[in-house]
Amino acid sequence: MPPRRPAGRDTRPSGRVRSARKGEPSRLFVLDTNVLLHDPTSLFRFEEHDVFLPMQTLEELDRNKKGVSELARNARQASRFIEEVMGRASSAIDEGMPLQRSDTDPATGLLFLQTEAMADPLPANLPTASADNLIIGVVAHLHRGHPDREVILVSKDINMRIKARAAGLAAEDYFNDQVLEDSDLLYAGSRLLEPDFWEANGNGLESWKKDGATLYRVRGPLAADLNVNQFVYIEGDRAFNARVRSVEPGNAVFETVRDYGNPRNAVWGVTARNREQNFALNLLMDPEVDFVTLLGQAGTGKTLLALAAGLAQVLDDKRYSEIIMTRVTVPVGEDIGFLPGTEEEKMAPWMGALEDNLEVLNNTDSTSGEWGRAATRDLIRSRIRIKSLNFMRGRTFINKFLVIDEAQNLTPKQMKTLITRAGPGTKVLCLGNIAQIDTPYLTEGSSGLTYVVERFRGWPHGGHVTLQRGERSRLADFAAESL
What we know:
Shape: globular
CATH class of the largest domain: Alpha Beta
CATH topology of the largest domain: Rossmann fold
Number of helices: 14
Distance between the termini: 54 Å
Strand order of the largest sheet: 3-4-2-1-5-6
């Protein structure tokens, strides 16, 4: 039977999903399979609104449940959630089953499953062979049968949403997992202060020395807008570069940063070429910072800085036992098929950036000669391990320098899986460019990299820097800006 909502149900305001207006029935959301495969908990994300699952969605969940991939795991988890809801329901399926799992659960809507064949559900301009079109047909049938309710298709598939709208139906993306609606609002990790900052904040200013750095306690309303480990700077003749060490109500403590642009402070022969690179090296070389995210377009030096800091702390400072490199194996072009060899040999073609940067780092010392460079090359390679993401579950990395490259292609759940591998003494770095996402259904707002930048914002043992300026070559810089 068509889903009807019992009278008098709670219609509390929702968060990301717009709530029903007072006196009007709540919305009915029809979920495409890719929403459940992307986020199995999406069933419980629509608060007071109802959710409808077409039979075709259940069929596609069944087809995707086999295997050990993240997709298969999500399919199985979504099926478990559906069975859990059905097990708690005391009413018939076609009357709707409560989604609320506890008194504090915001999901107060009902779950409906397709229990009958829908006669002539498809618009005449849509072929019947496509699974997507069958789901659109269900939406059309519900739309015609419930003129008093707003029926909305929710899908991660852009083309499916376009087809639904072309058929006169409402369709939306799944926004609940999006951290930001606009990537321009993403936390940059640094902040420009006004040139008259010292004059405006001079009252009650305190300063002192500690471990070769100068610290300032600044009082005023600015402190409320700052985060721990955020960098602040003033440009011009009175240039000032500092890091926010602590934030308390009404005041913040700034600490001057170490100048890694000076050759005396070079990290494995690498010096910072711009302000953001200097900020990044301050985070990478700080043993109290366990988690670092670096964003930036191609050529800004993310991988080079990470490897230089890793080698310096593994081989010189003996702070970590080895460097572990991993990345998502998403091809840019057509896949070339299976790769032979061991795990590291299979990952080697994906680690071209590692090889390129190791070549640069190995040539930073021009006085060691060919034999010296060869010995250094062997030593470096003995301390770097290349691991596949496919075998990360259940592992614990102790005293490692873990670098996750191309992190923009990870989902928030995959990112959580990787970061929670960190054991005592391990430092985790996430590198990426959210403008180059190759994974289907991920956007700049829902990428796992965006997710961790916002979630770790202000944590005393985490830091973030967005690298602004390319340093690869003038050709690469011009291409990045104009193409």
